[in-house]
Amino acid sequence: SVHLKYLSEDEDAKRELAEYIQETKKSINPRWRLHYHVIPPVGWMNDPNGFSYYKGEYHLFFQYYPYDSVWGPMHWGHSVSPNLVDWRELPTALAPDEEMCFSGSALVDGDKLVLMYTGRLNTDTDPFYNETQYLAFSDDGVNFYKYEGNPVLARTPDGAYDFRDPKIWKYGDYWYVVIGSSTHDARGRVLLYRSQNLYDWEFLTVLGESNGELGYMWECPDFFELDGKYILLMSPQGLEPQGDRYKNTHQTGYIIGSFNYETFEFVPEVDFQELDFGHDFYATQTLDADGKRIVAGWFSMWELPHPEDVDGWAGAITIMRELKLSGNRLLQQPLDEMLSLRNGSVHNGSFNKDESLVFEKTGELIINGDLEQKIELEIAGTNGGNNIWIRWEPEVKKVVVDRGGDVRQVEWSPIGSRSWRLFLDASSLELFCGEGEVVFSTRFYPDGDLRVNSFSDQSLNVEAHKLRRSVP
Length: 472
Ligand code: FRU
Description:
By secondary structure, this protein is mainly β. The chain is built from 1 helix and 34 strands. The relative contact order is 0.13.
C-alpha cells in the first residue's frame, strides 16, 4: 500500500554530513563541553525530540543545525543510551528537504520506530511559513525514511497558522497527538487529535487554551497521566514576569487536572506552574519508561547569548529527571542511574566559612546545613571567568541562583529531605532541593576547573564526588 512506500534519503548527502561532523569536531574548543549531558556533536542544538525506547535502547533526538553554532534549517540529531545516563552519538536522523524538521516525538509501532514532527516551509507570502505534520520511519533505529504522503496533518481546525511540535502516544486502539498552536487572537493553546493508522487524523478538541494571560503560543506540549491525574506540560511564549516568576524569555510549566477518554475533556485543577526555576530550561519532552515518567529539557534559552558558540557548538539537554506528583506540584528527581557516574570522593564532612573544594570540570555535591542560617556558595573557575552564587535566605525562605546579578529565586519549604543535591558539569549546574520540589537548571561559563567556595559564616556538611564522562 502507499503507506509502506518511504522516500529514502540521499545516501551520499548522509555520508558527506557525517564526514563534515567528524572533521569539524576536531576544531571545537573543549573548555565548556559538557561531560555527562547530551550536547551537539558540532553546531547548534535546541529542543529534545523523539524521546523513546526502541529495540533495547533509549533514543533521544534533538533540534540540530550542524553547520553553525546558531539556529539554522533544522535537522534531527540523534543519541542512544542503555540507561538514560551513558549516551552515544548516532548519525543525524533527519535532514531538511524543502521542509525544516521542527520538533516532534517518537513511538514504536510493531517493529518500526515512528517519528512525527513538524515540517516547516518558509514561503514568500504572509504568514511566511507553513507548519504541517510529517511522519518518518525506521526499521533499525539508525536510518530514517520520510513518508511519501507527507504531510499527514495539514491544517488547524480554524486555519490558524502556528501548528507545531506533535507529541504522540497510544491509548487503547488509537494513536493520540497533542500539537502546540495559537488562536487567531494570539492565545496559546493545545490541540488534541487521534488516529487509528497514523495517516488519517481526526480533530478531537482544544485540550487547553490560554485565557489571555498564559502567552501567545504554547510550544512543545506533552500530555500524560501521573498517579491518577493528567498533566499538561508545555512551553508558553510571552508570559510577562511577575515577581519571582516567569523571568526567562519563555517558560516551561504544567497544569494538573483530570481527563476522560470518552469526552476528551481536560479539566484543570491547579493553575499553571513553572517546572524549573533556573535560567536555562525550555521545550521539555517526557518518556514513559516502564511506568516512570522521565523528562528532558533543552538546557538553554532563546534570545540570549550562548557563550560557547565561539567554541563551535551551542546548547545541551539537561540530565534526565523522573517526574513525580506530590500534592499540587511536580517533583523532578535525578535518576538512580546517576549514581553510576560517581568516580571518586572529593570531600565528605564539614564545609565551613572560607573553605573550598576543587572539581576537575564535573562534580556532584550533597549539601546539608541548618536552614536557620544563611547559606552562600560561590562556584567559580580556577582561572577566573564567570562565577555564580547559590544562596539560601532564611528570613524569606528562598533559594537563590545569582548569575552575575541576574537572579532566579523561589520559596522553598521542604516536604521531606532538607538537603541540596548539586550537579556541576564544566559550564552547567543543576540544583535539586529536597525531594525535587525546587530545581534550578542554569548554564555559566567559568575558566579552568570548578571551585566551590563557602563564604558566609555558615556550617555545612558536604559529600562531594567526581563524576565520570558519559558522553563521548
Ligand atoms: C521550541 C521551538 C519549537 C520548534 C523548534 C524549532 O524551542 O520553537 O516550537 O518546533 O523550537 O527549532
